[in-house]
Amino acid sequence: MSDTGLYLAFDIGASSGAKLALFNSSSSPMASPEVCAEEYSENFDIFSGQLVDAADVMLQSLGKSRKDLAGIGVASAGILGLDGGFKLFHNRPQYNGHNLRAALEMEFGVPAAIANDADAGGLAEWSVLKLELLYWVFGGGWGGVWIDKSGDIRFPSTDWDGRDESLHFSNEPGYSIGIDLWKLRSLFSEVGASFELFERQLHDDEDLPSDSLLGPGGNMDSMRAEVILSGPGRCRLFRAVVGNDDFYENFLDIHEQKELTDPAVAGAHISKLSRMRVESAVSTDRLYGKVLAEATRILLKKSEADGLPPGTPICLGGKPSYALPYFGPSTQRILGKSGFMNYLRPSVIDERGSNANLVGAAELARRAVKR
Question: Fold for domain 6-129+354-370?
Answer without folding.
Answer: Nucleotidyltransferase; domain 5 (3.30.420)
